[in-house]
Amino acid sequence: MDANEIRWTAAVADLEQALGYAFRDPALLRDALTHPSYRFENAVEADNQRLEFLGDAVLGFLLADRIYRSRQDHPEGMLTILRAAVASGASLAVKARALGLGPALLLGRGEELTGGRDRDSDLSDAFESVLGAVYVDGGIDAVSAVFDRLFAVEMATMGRDPWLDNPKGRLQSLAQKEHRVDPVYETVSESGPKHNRVFEVRVAVGEGLTAEGSGATKRAAQAAAAAALLRKLEETA
Can you tell me the distance from the alpha carbon of 64 to that of 142, in angstroms, rounded to the nearest whole number? Predict the structure, then answer.
């Protein structure tokens, strides 16, 4: 075993400890940590894209289930905003860093040299892949336990944010009062199949005040972006 393999094995052990889950099939975890660039350069059989697809669905289900059960006074639109805030790529990348997932990634040389080990998209994709791998390895009970442990703070505090109550209206009022302008919303991207679209929206107030949000509809994404900008303004006030 060479030095790189020793370091990777240690990083994987640390990751399993942080997850609170030991894989019965270590090959599943290896697949979840294998970036497509590594598969291409090393001619291995699998990368993490299929597990990412599954993990995204598992994460979406668990979030929807927990939010639905714990926030029975919230309408559908509010539930969508809450789910989008927790499951955004940036939020998942933060979770991945906290787990120490970056050092455990298997990357191709080019991806490594261009900063892929700390790139939000690589980390968030791998986070979903790992959840998918836990589900395949241990079933719904195992992945539910991991989810509840990793998202305990979010589940306990979500919905208490005052800006989630009509965030677009609140931002509109604040922008006109403080800056004498209206918020400007821009759709940054659309992704996913027609039945499961994800919209990314950026909102700007004047010059330099921006935030982004995502959602299953443009309206939900705009609300998430408005809530994010309101939080930012509150923090800097």
Answer: 17
Per DSSP, which regions of 58-131 are E strands? none
Query: Which positions are annotated as active-site residues?
Result: 56, 128
Residue 218 has pLDDT above 90, yes or no: no
CA dist 108 → 101, 171, 231 (Å): 16, 43, 38
CA dihedral 26, 30, 31, 36 (to 10 degrees): -170
Q: How far is CA 35 from CA 29, 120, 123, in A?
A: 12, 13, 10
Please name the CATH architecture into which domain 162-236 falls.
2-Layer Sandwich (3.30)
Q: Which residues pair with 119 in a beta bridge?
A: none
User: What one-letter code names the amino acid at 23?
Assistant: F
Please compute the mean of the pLDDT values over residues 17-30 and round it to a whole number: 96
Q: Mean pLDDT lowest for which of 23-32, 148-157, 179-188?
A: 148-157
Pick the CATH number of 3-157 from 1.10.1520.10, 3.40.228.10, 3.40.50.150, 1.20.120.1780: 1.10.1520.10
97: Cβ contacts below 8 Å, ≥ 6 apart: 118, 123
Segment 122-158, tens digit of pLDDT? 999 999 999 999 999 999 999 999 999 999 988 887 6
Instruction: Name residue 149's amino acid.
Output: R
pTM equals 0.69
Secondary structure letter of residue 184 according to DSSP: E
The answer to whether residues 230 and 167 touch, using CB atoms and an 8 Å cutoff, is yes
Q: Letter for the amino acid at 89?
A: G
* Predicted pLDDT at 160: 60
- State the pairing for strand pair 184-191/209-215: unpaired
* pLDDT given at position 232: 79
